[in-house]
Amino acid sequence: MAFWRSLPVTDSSAVVVPVLMNAIVLPLMAIMTALSLNLLLSAPLWIGDLSFKLGFDLLLVYIGGSLQAAFTLLWFLPVVLLLAVGNSLVRRWGIAIVLIGTPILENMLSRLFNGHPYANFLHIYLSGFSGIQDNVYFLTYFSEQANLALQFTSLLRYLINWPFFFVLLSCTACLYALIWRRKHGQTA
Predict the structure, then answer these.
(1) Cα–Cα dist 61/26, whole Å
(2) What is the pLDDT of residues 119-129, one digit of tens each?
(3) Exposed end of the chain (fewer CB within 10 Å): N or C?
(4) Which segment of 68-72, 84-88, 159-163 scores lowest on mean pLDDT?
(5) CA 117/CA 103 separation, integer angstroms
(6) Residue 62 to residues 71, 85, 148: CA-CA distances in angstroms?
(7) 38 and 139 Cβ atoms separated by less than 8 Å
(8) How far apart are CA 76 and CA 79, in angstroms?
(9) Would you give the distance in Å from CA 187 to the centre of its chain?
(10) What is the mean pLDDT of residues 52-73?
(11) What is the dihedral of CA 39, 44, 46, 48, to 10 degrees?
(12) pTM, entire model
């Protein structure tokens, strides 16, 4: 532990950089590589009809698919961070406590607030997380000739809303909790 504390790295960068690399950048690079290979391997389907419009649409499909992947990873980030905080606080049982405690907490809040919509935070989170995957169809461009403008609008609908704001807020709170734990000599 003394070796890691002696490195010239701030506590915030020691927490934030690995999270960004392992939860956002590296998975996004893998997804973008898969998208590139998908376009390359599907070339026999579109190379004969290649025009400026089709090339521009393929570029939009690639950009849209990459944005969809990036925003899906952002929607998933609170789960990763909450599990890391649970592991940091309780060690062996932290992940189990988070996985079991979250639905129990939602059930208690739902009963306490008489079914208020935001008491069902797990349902709201999962509907946004699965919605960005199930209702945005960039990657079915060839099979369904999806309207790309409508797809970008649908993608923005899952980002400009209150649940996504709470996703970002919970990510920030979990990152601060992990930084605070590291400052006090305890890491996940």
Answers:
(1) 21
(2) 566 666 666 66
(3) N
(4) 159-163
(5) 15
(6) 14, 34, 11
(7) yes
(8) 6
(9) 23
(10) 82
(11) 150
(12) 0.73
